[in-house]
Amino acid sequence: MRRLLGKTPNVATSAEMAQSVSNRGLAEAGNSILDNTLTRVADKISKNPMGKVATKDALNTITKLGKALGLSYFTERTEEGVQNLVSSRYQKGDYDNAEGYSLLSGAANMANLGLEANLAYYGIHPDNTLNTDKDLINEMKIGGFTGLFMTGVYGARDVYEGTKQVLTDNKLRGLTADHYADAERDNKID
């Protein structure tokens, strides 16, 4: 089998696996940095061990919410920009010739339109008429803003996990309080 395939497929597979591992390592490193930062903030906010746990949980929730809302804002804003560009190009007749259309070319066109919309939003598109198109920018702002309210940031699984975490934290608080009470009783001098 190796004689038929040669060494190139194995090298390509090894390179892809190494790239995948390095990407995973990069993502884990990013999560680790964020986790360590949240731990340091929780340590500074609360001196009580259970307060630190509750603070870190709250910070993790806020971080997750911020990331989800930011992603929703960006994707909805981009969608509105693409719709504006498509409708203006359709009115000009740019899409009258549908020959040669494929799923791949449609996906590439969509990615290109998304890039163009965001470049125009920030005023750095090579076509200055798009940079100054107030309708495009307003539609993108409104789309992003409404995207903040349409997002399903928390699903049933998240609510379940959050509830389980609160119950666990409450149980730990109770055990910690019992331990302090026992230690106080044991060390009390009569």
Concise overview:
The chain has about 190 residues and is mainly alpha-helical.
Question: How would you describe this structure to a colleague?
Answer:
The chain is mainly alpha-helical. It contains seven helices and no strands. Helix 2 crosses helix 3, helix 3 packs across helix 4 and helix 3 (49-92) packs antiparallel against helix 7 (156-187). The longest helix has 44 residues, at 49-92. The radius of gyration is 27 Å and the shape is elongated. The N and C termini lie far apart (84 Å). Residues 1-15 have low confidence and may be disordered.
As a percent range, the share of strand residues is under 5%
Mean pLDDT: 75
Q: Mind telling me the C-alpha Rg? A: 27 Å
Main β-sheet description: none
> Are there runs of 5+ residues with pLDDT below 50, and where?
1-15
The separation of the N and C termini measures 84 Å
Q: How many individual β-strands? A: 0
Instruction: Count up the helices.
Output: 7
Pattern of helices and strands = HHHHHHH
Helix content, binned percent: over 70%
Per the principal axes of the C-alpha atoms, what is the gross shape? elongated
Q: Supply the helix-strand structural class.
A: mainly alpha
Keywords:
190 residues, 83% helix, 7 helices, mainly alpha, elongated
